[in-house]
Amino acid sequence: MLFYLTLVAVLAALALDPSAKASFAASPQRPNVRDANNLPLTNAKRLALGLPLLPPRRAPTPRGTAAGSSVSILPPVVHTCNILVQDASTGQPLGYISPTLADGSRYATVQTSPVGALSVTFSASATSHTQLTLQAINGDPDLPILAAYVSAGSPSSTDLGPDRAGIARLIARAPPEPSASRRGVIIAPAYSHSETTIWSYDLVSQALTAQWTNSDGSTPQTLIYYDASAPLFFLSRQTGLDGPNQLVTFKCL
What start and end residues bound the annotated signal peptide (predicted)? Predict the structure, then answer.
């Protein structure tokens, strides 16, 4: 009974005081508002709490490297081998270059067995396999470089000529001076000109080829010949030389 009497009294007071009724209606129960830093991060929960939505989040732009912009450079590999001489037309082996020098400085003979044959070493990789220097490890220790020179009797003392007179003989020579250019230095009065970094190596076929550089910077066709009657290995720009000159190739085995 007391409860009902109290309720009637409250209702009567509201009816008599409109400002109290408005104040009561304008103060609905609200959820407990928490610190914004501790609020849920999902927009669904923020909407439920009457909070503004979070700004859109953008994924960071990948900073990838374009294909081909970065090339893995492999370090050079040291190769050591004997040089097999083959007929350029038939591929028939003629033998291995001998370490024995003719006239004290020329490579001129071959031997049938790789045992005791001239052994050379050089560094090459897939990106660095031209303009190589070949160094003998079982030849004359004072003349370890397998090089070539144009003799003083050639029409040009620096260039490969148009015939047998303008050739470059294979020789053993001392290393170039530190200040010498790519074309090398004179090692004796009889050697009017020599070049050392003339070799290229094919990592697949194991072929060793030569490239002479003329005094004007041009690079003529450079072929390797063997004259067994002399005997003599030499470089020439000419094909089909007459006489006992045999066009050959070198292979690193």
Answer: 1-22
Q: Does this model's pTM top 0.70?
A: no
* CA pseudo-torsion sign 143, 144, 145, 146: positive
CATH of the domain at 236: 2.80.10
Residue matched to tokens 């009567």: 12
**Cα 97 from Cα 88, distance rounded (Å):** 16
β-strand pairing of 106-107 with 119-124? unpaired
Statement: residue 194 has pLDDT above 60? yes
Amino acid at 79: H
Does residue 144 come out as left (phi exceeding 0), alpha (psi in the -120 to 50 range) or beta?
alpha
Among all chains, which residue has been given the structure tokens 């439920």?
A: 48
Closest CA to 253 of 197, 200, 196, 207: 207
Q: Give the alpha-carbon dihedral of 176, 159, 98, 200, to 10 degrees.
A: 70
Domain range spanning residue 169? 77-252
